[in-house]
Amino acid sequence: xxxxxxxxxxxxxxxxxxxxxxxxxxxxxxxxxxxxxxxxxxxxxxxxxxxxxxxxxxxxxxxxxxxxxxxxxxxxxxxxxxxxxxxxxxxxxxxxxxxxxxxxxxxxxxxxxxxxxxxxxxxxxxxxxxxxxxxxxxxxxxxxxxxxxxxxxxxxxxxxxxxxxxxxxxxxxxxxxxxxxxxxxxxxxxxxxxxxxxxxxxxxxxxxxxxxxxxxxxxxxxxxxxxxxxxxxxxxxxxxxxxxxxxxxxxxxxxxxxxxxxxxxxxxxxxxxxxxxxxxx
Length: 281
What we know:
This protein has about 280 residues and is of the alpha/beta class. The chain has helices spanning about 20-30, 50-55, 60-75, 90, 95-100, 115-130, 165-185, 200, 205-215, 245-255, 260-265, 275-280, and strands at about 5-10, 30-35, 80-85, 105-110, 135-140, 145, 195-200.
């Protein structure tokens, strides 16, 4: 990759404001190639589907050429800034980011874990109900897998029986994604390259977005355009957490490995921490 170009990626689960942030960059940051999930962009893999499976199985002979292809695409952009707001990054790229990315920066979006899981669960239910095509792919072992999620074969999932609910699957996925985010940052000593946003309270605040652009020294207009895309799930109202949802979280919390329990405590300054910590007890 071009050493002078700053390549910014989002560290996030799905349903965490990635499309909102991509629209912010597109409308407010100058000299920046901005993309969300690059469907139909020749040469820029989305990293959904097969690359997620390859990453889980550590099939690097298949994965690394695709990651290198993405890096070549990034470097080929003429702009000095590249921004990609894509929750596939931590699902497919986290093991090799340290060696393949030359001058990266990251926006770490963290939303309430139960709200993320519930929103992802409801989005999948709607997709299934509408019978949209191409939402599943066939793994190398012949399984049918949902294109936008982890495979369920990741190490964390092995602590649980196959009877977990789909909502619990998404809770475990949130935990795994955040575990990867923190490990990526610490292993590569990238703490000074990460801007953290508590999505539930800060993502749509002008002063936070202003601080983010200053953190990365991004060229922006004096007044922000905050008429931005909000990727609401059609036919679904605001995400509501029920008592059953809390009980399902407590069920998986009882078997969480200690490293993942510690992970949650690392977010003690987040707006949702006390609620989740009570459910851990």
